[in-house]
Design brief:
The chain is mainly beta. It contains one helix and seven strands; from the N terminus they run H-E-E-E-E-E-E-E. Helices cover 11% and strands 41% of the residues. The chain is elongated, with a radius of gyration of 22 Å.
């Protein structure tokens, strides 16, 4: 069994095609394939959390944010396509599409009514307000 990582295998295949037909080898147009997980930055303030999530290749209509107590779930349909002019001769096209999602738990419940979301330039910014209500109760130990 081979111990090559998927990245190493891809480079090996690239090298094979480069050696077989060096004049016709073209690198991928968009670099890496569809990300397997949404990347996050989470900052905590006194009254809220500010979250930046990278979701390139999606429109705001295809992004869904679900909040249940202290659990936040992000889900997005992502697609990347090329536009070609009628006089273009397409030699190679690499596109990706699919769905990515991520769930994470915060230390406190979130006030859904006061929270906000904005999507701009491939980054979803969530301002999640901490809930003032305590949903749990500490038990006295006898």
């Amino acid at each position: 069994m081979s111990s090559l990582s998927p990245f190493s295998k891809r480079n090996l295949i690239d090298e094979l095609f480069r050696d077989v037909s060096p004049g016709f080898f073209i690198r991928p147009l968009h670099g890496e394939p569809l990300p397997t997980q949404i990347k996050l930055d989470i900052k905590e303030g006194d009254k809220d959390y500010v979250i930046h999530a990278e979701i390139p290749g999606s429109s705001k209509e295809n992004i869904h944010v679900n909040i249940e107590g202290d659990v936040v779930t992000l889900r997005a349909e992502v697609s990347q396509t090329d536009t070609n002019r009628s006089d273009d001769k397409l030699i190679r096209s690499e596109r990706y599409y699919g769905e990515v999602s991520r769930s994470f738990q915060l230390p406190v419940d979130i006030d859904q009514q006061a929270s906000k979301a904005r999507y701009e330039n491939g980054v979803l910014t969530l301002t999640l307000v901490k809930s003032a209500q305590k949903t749990g109760q500490r038990l006295t130990i006898d």
